[in-house]
Automatic annotation (TrEMBL), chain A:
Residues 1-33 are annotated as: Disordered. Residues 100-289 form the ABC transmembrane type-1 domain. Residues 1-18 have a biased composition (Low complexity). It comes from Streptomyces netropsis. One of its GO terms (cellular component) is plasma membrane. The chain crosses the membrane at residues 40-61, 99-123, 135-159, 171-190, 211-233, 269-289. PROSITE patterns: ABC_TM1 (PS50928). It is a multi-pass membrane protein. Keywords: Cell membrane, Membrane, Transmembrane, Transmembrane helix, Transport. It comes from the Bacteria. This is Cellobiose transport system permease protein. Belongs to the binding-protein-dependent transport system permease family. The lineage of its organism: Bacteria, Bacillati, Actinomycetota, Actinomycetes, Kitasatosporales. InterPro entries: MetI-like, MetI-like_sf. One of its GO terms (biological process) is transmembrane transport.
From TrEMBL, chain B:
This is Cellobiose transport system permease protein. It is a multi-pass membrane protein. Residues 1-10 have a biased composition (Low complexity). It comes from Streptomyces netropsis. It is found in: Cell membrane.
């Protein structure tokens, strides 16, 4: 495992939500990182930004046209007037309404479960003493390497046996914890949670659960928020298992979009409207919390 | 901090009324109640950690480890989709069939080529972008968030747009190529063109994410290394080449491993790029990956046992990758 090798410099105990940008040093001129970007840097970044955003913008453009316009060259480059109609058709015919509702439920439950279970496990790994701790931690890190989709067949057999096909719990339960989350919370709490605080409460006779409730959770809150957002995004976009466990009768967004892509509704503009509906909530979240999400990914990277 | 105050209040010598909250471990008060409490306290200290990590490991055992092991067991059986309960022992027959199937080797090869096509440019561009993001920039956060936006787009939504953009007759890509005098390309039907198109979706979604990972690692490089390099008269490019890249080597290895695992599992992009018959990965299976092959075996040919054999083969490939990675990492550490 190479995961921990990047930690050698003592990282500042900054909350992940804090601005991760280059911090202006105390009056020292530093080479390298403090160099100002030249026009070329801006030009290249602008190019990649356009490349990153264009497919999304064009999704909206195509969703606002009618399908006969999409079957003509040159392709449309600006918005048309059919957006409401296409969104409406996608909402009803492609079942996007139900899909969005289901996905909010599923992703919310997964984010909640992940944050809760990973925080207490991360706390135990960060600050408590128990036998087999380092072995268990290594095991946790090791499990990050195993992609869950290798186990789909037995999972499917179990779900079929329980008659859980098309039930949301079949998608929620297998994704409810994450090894990354445990590790992420551990790395955060190692630095952010003063051991003396726990000891003081201990001396006071507080039980472990009281320590968690009154000390750990308040300290961990910023990292919990970031982990919650990352888990939510991941659960929202989860693909392979939901495709197998659910059908078009009771889909998540990704299942409904797959139905669209495989010819469920032949209208291209409606397909794009569906894709737009399925992406918009996350894009909105990115506009609001983009900085925190970026900070969380970078924090997870340096630490993990 | 208010919580600590409430928690610490009891340290005073015995509040009046009710429970004196003394440190039970140090001074277990006289009487049965005190002994019981101190024993509870010790149990709490000893066993609570296990309770805290238990949910994670229980869920992992139930939904991660068990399915993985059971996949291996089921791969030695004949299991039909219609009756998953009915397992008949066939030994290694699923595997020998796999090795005899040209489509398996085709899928293995496609997984490899698409993996290379998507991973190499992606990580190289991410490294370059991270270098640019590491400069002092106006609106630094805007660039980061913008470059990360594709990561927020699901595989399904992204692929549906790219299918349109790569359309043979009315797609934007062919239109742009036409504008510079290149004939329209039938992206889906060619082997290399379809694999290029599928790879481009992967590249689009993950480049910004990897750039942020590299950026985080760059920010952890001590400044004095750059200072001394600058004093030696190193240009920006030389600094990048001789300071940044060596310092990032572990991170680069890490991203290679993660991307390789992702590439081995590639599924959604080729599935939806293929449209209605996507599990085949194109009319002549030209972009069928191992993930799609597994899906086709299990849910379109109804042979769950064979699908398990595919999954277990993929697992073995991952173990191989992990072993190679461990060797590389060890050599890397030695060379330092």
């Amino acid at each position: 495992m190479t995961t921990t090798t990047t930690t050698d410099p003592p990282a500042p105990a900054a909350a992940p939500a804090r601005r991760p940008g280059p911090r202006p040093g105390p009056g020292t001129r530093r080479a390298g990182r403090q160099l100002h970007g030249g026009p070329v840097a801006y030009a290249v970044l602008a190019l990649f930004t356009v490349g990153s955003l264009f497919p999304l913008v064009w999704t909206a453009v195509a969703a606002s046209r009618d399908s006969s316009r999409l079957a003509r060259t040159p392709p449309p480059l600006w918005f048309g007037s059919n957006l409401p109609r296409n969104l409406g058709t996608a909402w009803t015919d492609a079942n996007m309404g139900l899909a969005l509702f289901n996905t909010v439920l599923v992703a919310g439950a997964i984010a909640l479960g992940t944050v809760l279970f990973c925080t207490i496990a991360g706390f135990a790994f960060a600050k408590l003493r128990f036998r087999f701790k380092s072995v268990l931690l290594m095991l946790t890190i090791g499990t990050m390497m195993i992609p869950p989709q290798l186990g789909v067949v037995p999972l499917f057999m179990v779900v079929a046996e329980l008659e859980w096909t098309d039930r949301l719990q079949s998608v929620v339960l297998p994704t409810l914890v994450s090894a990354f989350g445990v590790f992420f919370m551990r790395q955060y709490l190692v630095e952010a949670l003063p051991t003396e605080l726990i000891e003081a409460a201990r001396v006071d006779g507080a039980s472990s659960w009281r320590v968690v409730w009154h000390i750990v959770l308040p300290v961990a809150r910023p990292a919990m928020a970031v982990l919650g957002m990352l888990s939510f995004v991941q659960a929202w976009n989860d693909f392979f298992w939901p495709i197998i466990a659910l059908t078009q009768e009771n889909p998540t967004v990704q299942v409904a979009l797959t139905g669209l892509g495989r010819g469920y509704v032949p209208d291209q503009a409606v397909i794009m409207a569906g894709a737009l509906l399925g992406t918009l909530p996350l894009l909105l979240a990115f506009t609001l919390f983009g900085r925190q999400i970026v900070g969380g990914i970078m924090q997870g990277a340096v630490k993990g | 901090m208010t919580t600590t105050a409430t928690a610490a209040r009891g340290t005073g010598a015995g509040d009046e009324g009710g429970t004196p909250r003394r440190p039970p471990g140090h001074d277990p008060g006289p009487g049965r109640a005190g002994r019981v409490r101190s024993r509870l306290y010790r149990w709490d200290v000893r066993y609570s950690p296990y309770a805290f990590v238990a949910p994670f490991f229980l869920f992992f055992a139930a939904f991660g480890l068990f399915p993985l092991l059971y996949t291996g067991w089921a791969s030695l059986h004949r299991v039909e989709l219609a009756a998953p309960d009915d397992m008949r022992w066939v030994g290694l027959r699923n595997y020998t069939r796999l090795l005899d199937d040209d489509f398996f080797w085709n899928a293995l090869g496609n997984t490899f080529t698409i993996g290379v096509l998507s991973t190499v440019p992606q990580l190289l561009m991410a490294l370059g972008l991270a270098h640019l993001l590491h400069y002092r920039l106006r609106a630094a956060n805007f660039w980061r968030v913008a470059l990360l936006t594709p990561y927020a787009t699901s595989v399904a939504a992204a692929t549906l747009v790219f299918v349109l953009l790569y359309g043979r007759d009315y797609g934007m890509v062919n239109w742009a190529l036409g504008a510079v005098g290149i004939d329209a390309v039938d992206w889906q039907s060619g082997t290399w063109t379809s694999q290029f198109a599928v790879s481009s979706i992967v590249i689009w979604r993950w480049t910004g994410y990897n750039a942020l990972i590299y950026l985080a690692a760059m920010q952890a490089v001590p400044d004095d290394r750059y200072e001394s390099a600058a004093l030696d008269g190193a240009s920006r490019w030389q600094q990048f080449r001789h300071v940044t890249v060596p310092a990032l080597r572990p991170t680069i290895l890490f991203t290679i491993v993660v991307s390789t695992i992702g590439a081995t599992q590639l599924f959604g992009e080729p599935l939806l790029f293929g449209g209605a018959g996507g599990q085949k990965g194109g009319a002549s299976h030209q972009f069928q990956t191992l993930g799609l092959y597994l899906y086709e075996q299990g849910w379109f040919s109804f042979h769950l046992g064979r699908a398990c054999a595919v999954a277990w083969t993929m697992f073995l490939i991952l173990l191989l990758i992990a072993a190679v990675n461990a060797t590389l990492a060890r050599r890397l550490r030695k060379s330092h």
